[in-house]
Structures are given as structure tokens and as C-alpha cells.
Amino acid sequence: MAATLELAEALIARASVTPADAGCQALLADRLATAGYRIEWLPRGEVSNLLAVRGDSGPVLLFVGHTDVVPSGPSAAWQSPPFEPTRRDGRLYGRGSADMKTSVAAFVTACERLAKAGADSGMRIALALTSDEEGPAEHGIQAIAPDLAARLGGIDWCLVGEPSSEARLGDTIRVGRRGSLSGEIVVPGRQGHVAYPDQADNPLHRLAPVLAELTASTWDAGTDAFPPTTLQLTGIDADTDAVNVTPGRATARFNLRYSPASTAAGLRAGIEAVVSAHAPQARIAWRHSANPYASEAGALREAVTATIREQTGQTPAASTAGGTSDGRFIAPLGAEVVEFGPVNASIHQIDEHVDLATPGQLSEAYEAIIRRLARPSRQPG
């Protein structure tokens, strides 16, 4: 499967730091058009969105992926330049290699082979790619999801190429994701000299018990399919860094990854009560970026599981843990959603990588999944 490895390298070489696409989608569109796919461009502002479709009737399988990547960090910290794909010690290194240009390359080469063999009849295969997944994710799949549903006349199955695997390819698939709720607590005070605390109002002293209570709280016990809700602090700031001055304002940022056992409204109310009890003058700025979702087991999960079992001898774990993904925008359209992609141990890190065998193995797996779904007796559900 050298073709998939080479395509992954071609994508990695394009420095598509979100929301830039850097020509990735144009490269893919040319190849898909040659394979008989109809190409539609659905740009939203500076974000590039691509829809490619083959077939005119039958159930719809939608591949969802993103061509944008997170910033590389300091290039000097990498063993090889982050946007110079490098084969070393049995691995392919480069920003986006695991998240998720290898999956995108595997989508395309699997579709090319099936089209050439004429083995994709009886169903419609579509690919939706965006350059806004690693950023705010407001102008990518979220923005075009209604267009996708309208153009495709509905979506039966959605396979997302996020790096779902934990230790080896295929050991874990994602069948849902937790919700994401972020907040920033701003506690006002009065700056002063540390030697005269009676003449100041130290906001850190009121923020501290808030954070102690929040971090000690149990939010829920999760569900059969979801782990419990967790809260993590992501930053604490004060408006002075002098050791002899108390600050005039203190700020704390946090994120909750929450299960369906909680609601965003309920979590907000609980946190606001804690903050009000210790720092009644504080204010909270909220950002709710994802609802939890889960897909019931259906034909897609069956096809993915059977393919992985056939290729590895192991049955993958079905997980709802991890971060958010664009699957959250497709699930409400009625599609069964499964995420299956490379090992995620190096994503967003210096020296991000995949094993050299992964591109070819993943392409073979995607091809096998399509073939299973394309069987004449297969029906969505």
C-alpha cells in the first residue's frame, strides 16, 4: 500500500495549520474526480470544505475528515522538520501524521481502488473534508452539516478518521463522545501591599476555595456507555507578578467533559452556586462547544468490528472517551457514527508519528468496511 503512504506524505508536506488547507483538498479533489467522484466546494469564509460523492442511489456512507492541523510548536524541538515527512525507525514523522492526514489518505486510496474495481455499486460513498476542526470548528462540518444532509438525501453511516486507537491500530473505536463545557471565572478585588492586607482585597483568597470545591466535586457517575463527568483546571492567572503586591483581579479557566448523566445547564447552575457562595462578585464566561452523543450499534459498527477482528484477531473496545470530534455534527442527522483511525499516543505532540505500516493497513481496512456495507443484502439500521 505504498500509494497511501506516499499520499499521506504529500499531505503532511503541506503546512495546513488551522484554518489553512494549504492545497490539501485540491490535491485530493483531483484524485477523487479522476476516480469518478462529483466534487462540490462548500467554503465558509476562510475555511475550505470539500464534498465528494460517487453513486446515485442506495444507502450513504460518509467519510468525515479534516485537513487542518494544530501548530507544530518550536521546529527546533522536532527531530526532523514538522512539515517535512520523514521515515525513520519504522515510523512516519510529521505534523498531522496521526491527526489525521494518514486517515484522509487512506479514505481516498480505498475509494480509488473500489472505484477502479467497480466494487462500490449499490450504495453512495461520500467524503466531507474541512480545514476547521482543530480551531473553533464553527465553519467546518458544523456549518455544512445541513448542506450535506440535503445534498445526500440523508446519511446512513458516517465513518470519522480520528485517531481512535490506543496502543495498536484497531484496539479501540469511538462510538460516541462526551460533551464539552468551558468556563472562565473572573474574581475582582483591590490591589494592595502584602504587608497591609486590611487595605486590600485579595481575589485569590476567594478564588482558592472555589477551585478547591470544584475540583473535589463528583458531578455524576456516568452511564453504561460513558465515563463520569470530569472537571479540569486549564489556567489560573492574576494581574500582578510582584511578590509584595496582592492582585486586583484573579482568573481561573476550566473545562468539563460531561456524560449524558449531566446537562450543560445543570453543570452551569452547580458551578455558579459554588462561585456565588465564595466569591459573590465574580462573573463566569461560558462556552459550550459540544453535546454528548452516542450511536447505537448497527451495520457500520458491525462492519468495522468484523474488519478489525479479521485483520488483527482482536475485537476492538467501543469507547466514548477522549476529546470531541466532528462526528457530533453528523450524529444528530440520524446517521450511525463510528470513529476509527491511527494510534493517538503522539497527537498534538512534538515528533507526531504513525507506524509506516499504518497508512496501508488503514486503507485496506476502510476498503473492507465499504465492501461489507456494499453487499446487496446490507440495509442501513
In short:
The chain is α+β, with helices and mostly antiparallel strands. The protein has 9 helices and 19 strands.
Protein described:
The chain is an alpha+beta fold and 381 residues long. 31% of the residues lie in helices and 24% in strands. The chain contains 9 helices and 19 strands. The strands form 6 sheets. Strands 1-2-6-3-7-18 form a 6-stranded mixed sheet, sandwiched between helices.
Q: Helix fraction?
A: 25-40%
The gross shape turns out to be elongated
- Beta content comes to 15-25%
User: How would you write the strand order of the largest sheet?
Assistant: 1-2-6-3-7-18
Q: Cα distance, first to last residue? A: 32 Å
The DSSP helix count reads 9
Q: pLDDT below 50 for ≥5 consecutive residues: which ranges?
A: none
* Average pLDDT score: 95
Radius of gyration, taken over Cα atoms and rounded to an integer in Å: 23 Å
Taking the sheet with the most strands, its summary is: 6 strands, mixed
SSE pattern, N- to C-terminal: HHEEEEEHEHEEEEEHEEEHEEHEHEEH
The tally of beta strands, per DSSP, is 19
Estimated structural class: alpha+beta
